[in-house]
Amino acid sequence: MMTNSARAVAAATMAALVVAGCSTGQDEPGETRTPRAASPIEFNLPDAQRYHRLATYPVYMNKPAEEPVEMETVAEISTVTPDGNTVIYTDAAAKRIGFLDIRDPAKPVGQGTLSLAELGNADDQPTSVAAVRDLVLVVVDTTGGNFTEPSGRVDVVRVSDRTRVHSIDLGGQPDSIAISPDGAFAAIAIENQRDEEATPPGGEEGDLPQPPTGFVQLIDLTGEPSAWTPRRVDFDVETARAAGLDTPEDLEPEYVSINSRGQVAVTLQENNGFAIIDGRTGEVSQIYDAGSVAVEGIDTAEDGAIDQTGSIPQTPREPDAIGWIGDDHVATANEGDWKGGTRGWTIFDANTGEVVWDAGNSFEQLAVRTGLHIESRAESKGPEPEGLAITEIGGRPTALVASERSNFVAAYDVSDVTAPAFRQILPTTPGPEGVLPIPARNLLVISSEADEAENRVRASVTVYGYGSQYAAAGGPAFPSIVSGDVDGAPIGWGALGALSADPADENRLYTSPDIAVGPARILGIDLSTTPALIDTALPVTENGQPVTLDVEGVSARPDGGFVLAVEGEDGPGNQLVYVAADGSIERRVGLPADIASEVGGQGLEGVAVDGDSVWVAVQRELKSDPEGVARIGRYTPEDDRWEWFGYQLDSTSAEGDWIGLSEIAVHDGALLVLERDKLNGPDARVKAIYRVALPDGPGVTSAGETPRVLPKTLARDLLPDLQATNGFVQEKVEGFAVAGDHRLYVVTDNDGLDDANGETQFLDLGPANEALKG
Which residue stretches, if any, does this entry annotate as coiled coil (predicted)? Predict the structure, then answer.
């Protein structure tokens, strides 16, 4: 039975097709093609007006040599020495800080770590860092899980020899630190965070109040560090209550920022507010309610579909990071906590507390149109904007807002605070939290806090450089593929694992998301734009209803319609699915029973229509076949006949790794087969297209027969292409096609952001006769 969500997706997609005039590229003679979906955003910026990704440095590479590779190690908040050459980051997971040499920003060099065990206790955790002069202030949480007796300190460490020259008791559990632009003082948010498992009298688990309340510490940075002492700033409970904060007896300061006047802006996240403090006198001048907002046109159901018909009612913003835009406005990233989160960011007048602009649904829409929407967080807080920094680019104030869950940083020109202009989206590794502009060098450093060692998706420091001076060292522009909008909403997509040429248009391709982004749809790609544009979405239907299929391969038929390679949860679920030009399923062709019984969890991955034959690639070996030999199948629809040939996989020595096939195509009288390992990042070894001669005789017809192994030759090693992006090398390079324009295109499957950083790389590798060897 089709769920309400599935009906909504089907209705929305069908409406998109009607409104946008989406055709499948096979117009009848004399038919006039109607406009397709268009992008409302100009992503194709000149080199001089954009950030270029220079390097992605996984911080496990900076760990002590004796630690195992799989040990969790992260980079959360970072700072840079005044000369702009050394990045220092916090690693709470490993309870240390790390040092990274970025004199050559395209080649960061790890300079080791400093364990907090050397400064205090092995259970101490760094929460933030800030460099000043030849020192770094390391903010340390020493609470150790005792929420009713929070404690912390700031260690003043000399960068050159990493020795502590002073330590200051903060009187509570700290979070962020900021240093005034003139270097005169530091401000530290003392959060004294709540215990999410505690239940206060009359409340529910995790509720406030949970004393003690938080405050702010100010530290004057004049004279010798040994003389530095804190000045505590408390908040008046009744003033906070009058401002609209609902639990003012338990404020939890989260994030601080300081303007040129020495005013400190501090968020009070769990109380949905922020305050302004005079940093020189310690006077709290204003406390503001951050307010609530209703948001429409977002995905609010975790049902496997990108359904943007949802909404949230008036919801507290609960801001996390805050930054000054000039001296009169502040911007907040509205991550939310236990009561709220509005999936965007806001600009406030710091003198009145009034909202001058709010992102509404635009931040989440940005994630959708770039394939970075995270379906598993739809019912929670969506992209979760958490980190934020304000810098100046080309004389214009720029806001940089980080999405914790969708793994990107978005840049906005905020010259007009009432109408920020989106400029660029920058992909990151999972959990970007620290956003560190280095204006003197036109650099941007992004540190990420999520480390999934079991999936080899590692926390990293990513370095970007702004302007044409970094263009030569930078990788290809991101995004390389986006979706157009229909009725103000972008076409939802992700997990692209299949590509096919459009037989009727040399400037178009077809693709299809796999089961991570359902129900099944066939998407049309316009290659004539930069970035490439998904401008059509054709629902796959059966008996008039949308269906969910794990589509791993798609091939457009010259006479209209498509053949899909569908991978099942088990062998019998693997099928060829014939789809008409209108998206309706014409028939399903299952594998022969004996073959199906031998296919495990990795089955059909690619499909190619070649005249009267259909070629398929099976990802892994059949259970009874020789180890390392996968199967290539040839299906002849006329007599419903299957034949099988062998394909010798490359070998791998990495623990837990395996190699398999991901795509197949027929080109220039031969088969092209995409082979990859399961590794990513620095570990990736096998990502390649091989050429296989079309067999001159029949293949075997049963699982019990050992197939003849077809010889293969390397046509293109894709690893250098993936590395050239300067990002985290993607595991799942899963689709390729030679389009009608005779160019070779390759796409990576982002797994819908599950166990992956979510970046989709759509690579134009140039004329196929030059891109492919032999």
Answer: none
